[in-house]
Specification:
By secondary structure, the protein is α/β, with parallel strands linked by helices. The chain is 32% helix and 19% strand. The radius of gyration is 17 Å and the shape is globular.
Length: 182
């Protein structure tokens, strides 16, 4: 159900990787999720990291799409319990999320987002072959978006689209640059 990125205009499943040190990877995944839902598809969005603050705008906005957008948090990654309050559901561990993604979620939706999964690959808590297995076992109509700072070569090779987000300038880099004046 994800519109193909390119010139053909056909709806084909894709593997999309958003990586790099810059901000915007999750926001880009949210944009694809909205496009998928707007085309009548279903989205499962799994958050593999708990943010410093428990309120995420994209989690709250997902409720506007009803049952077409499920948000899933991971209890072992939550920095505080209230982080999971607004999620559709939660699982206990990263391992449990990977298992369910491979056996159930990858066939229940048109778009499966594994947000910040590459962090777990980089630190060794998830083997890259598990991610490749999810890609290979997904339903033919299911596209997958994977985000995170790190993108291993094996994942880049398997992806249809890879975008590197670089940090050119962000708030806090040099606060004096944001001051009004001369």
């Amino acid at each position: 159900m994800v519109e193909q990125i390119g010139n053909s205009g056909e709806n084909e499943s894709q593997v999309i990787v958003f990586a790099g040190s810059g901000i915007g990877k999750t926001v880009a995944a949210v944009g694809i999720a909205i496009r998928t839902i707007s085309a009548g598809g279903k989205v499962i969005f799994v958050y593999f990291a708990g943010p410093e603050h428990p309120t995420l705008g994209e989690i709250k906005s997902a409720t506007a799409f009803g049952g077409n957008w499920r948000t899933i948090g991971i209890k072992s990654e939550a920095k505080e319990p209230s982080y999971l309050d607004d999620f559709t559901e939660s699982v206990d561990t990263v391992e449990e999320a990977i298992n369910i993604a491979q056996t159930i979620w990858s066939s229940e939706c048109d778009l499966l987002v594994l947000d910040n999964i590459t962090h777990h690959v980089a630190c060794g808590s998830v083997d890259i072959t598990r991610i490749i297995d999810i890609i290979d076992s997904r339903a033919p109509r299911t596209s997958i978006v994977l985000t995170g700072v790190f993108a291993p070569d094996l994942l880049i090779d398997r992806a249809d689209v890879v975008t590197n987000f670089c940090n050119t300038k962000q708030p806090g880099d040099n606060d004096s640059e944001y001051m009004m004046g001369d």
